[in-house]
Design brief:
With 263 residues, this protein is mainly α. The protein has 6 helices and no strands. Helix 1 runs antiparallel to helix 2.
Length: 263
């Protein structure tokens, strides 16, 4: 694959770090800032994890190579034994012995072949387990991001909105709420990018499917948040156009009434 088409771990880490700094500047000590700190830690580990998922498991490869050499040696031994038994037939070796030897060699080849197949599948299963554990962590972070924006409703910006006793106590200005929701969408987008990083060098159907599920999850959550952002923009525009201007209060007339002589 062209290196220009690959996701770069350092670029992702740099983007997450910049987002974390922006959130900390705008909402210091907030839950979203702490969550972005965890996402930054995951991004910093993603390079090592992606390398561990993409690289070969060498002890399995070495065992597979040794078994492959044994298979070659076993096949060569069977061929040598068969040719020498037929061309230079010894009266002590008959066809029943030859058939028995061939049957034993075939059984050995089947066992060695099954062992090689097991080692190949074992390497895939090890990599798949690493990828699924990493993807599951990102899926959990995406759900936590959704929990943070759950109570951030644009309708709280309406003038007629009235808080109840159990309403969220946190109050934000329209601009702060818009930035908060936008930060959530950026975090969800970066979660999808980190998930894609894990499988860009590991073409496994199950792992790719798990990453696709995370990307669909983050895309769906981002779409829901963007609906809130659009609604918030519409509310601000409507309230700006329909600003209620109270008429000036009438001052009481303090002048004394004219003297009227009694009839």
């Amino acid at each position: 694959m062209n290196s220009k088409l690959l996701l770069r771990e350092d670029a992702i880490i740099k983007t997450v770090a910049a987002l974390h700094q922006r959130i900390s500047d705008r909402f210091p000590g907030s839950g979203l800032s702490n969550l972005c700190t965890q996402l930054l830690e995951v991004a910093e580990k993603s390079a090592v994890r992606a390398q561990g998922i993409g690289e070969s498991v060498w002890w399995i490869r070495i065992c597979g190579y040794v078994l492959a050499l044994l298979v070659i040696a076993l096949v060569g031994g069977m061929v040598w034994f068969t040719t020498h038994s037929v061309r230079f037939k010894d009266e002590a070796i008959g066809w029943p012995d030859l058939i028995g030897t061939f049957d034993a060699g075939t059984s050995g080849l089947i066992v060695l072949g099954a062992t090689i197949y097991f080692l190949i599948s074992l390497e895939i299963r090890i990599k798949r387990r690493r990828a699924l554990i990493a993807v599951h962590e990102l899926r959990s972070i995406a759900h936590v991001v959704d929990m943070h924006q759950l109570t951030k409703d644009p309708e709280r910006m309406l003038r007629r909105y009235r808080q109840t006793q159990n309403s969220p106590a946190e109050a934000m200005s329209p601009m702060e709420l818009s930035r908060y929701l936008d930060y959530c969408t950026e975090m969800l987008s970066l979660i999808g990018k980190i998930a894609a990083l894990y499988v860009q060098r590991f073409d496994d159907a199950a792992s790719v499917a798990a990453v696709s599920e995370v990307e669909q999850l983050t895309t769906g959550l981002s779409r829901k948040i963007w609906q809130k952002i659009v609604l918030l923009s519409d509310i601000n525009e409507f309230q700006t156009r329909h600003v209620r201007v109270d008429p000036p209060e009438e001052k009481p007339d303090t002048t004394a009434p004219p003297n009227v002589e009694p009839m």
